[in-house]
Predict the 3D structure of the following.
Amino acid sequence: MARSQTEQPTELELEILRVLWDRSPLLVRDVRAALEESGRPLAHSTVITMLNIMHRKGLLKRRRDGKSFWFWPAAPREATTGKMVGSLLSRLFDGSPAAMVLNLLQTADVDSEELAEIRKLVARKSKESQE
């Protein structure tokens, strides 16, 4: 049975998107080299297949240059991660940001710098809602 296409990127698609968000536009060989550097060696044909699937799914844009294609993300990192977090919030936490944040703080190792950053964001958000 064929796997259904999802709106959310798969784990490998996210790895490819991270490479392209940091360094795009890139040729197939450059995407492959970056994935190999990060510990994910893949065959050239696999990378081509993944990039073409991601293009069909609307995750990537591409431009032909002779016999090669340049690839880059169709949406900025913040838009993609925002959609993914929104989906997670809806599916697992019934749309409650408080439940999601509480769960994260209870289950993740959060260092003092991260806690300070979270406090700043909460204070700023609180101030914005009062205005």
Q: What stands out?
A: Strands lie at 26-27, 60-65, 68-73. DSSP finds six helices and three strands in the chain.
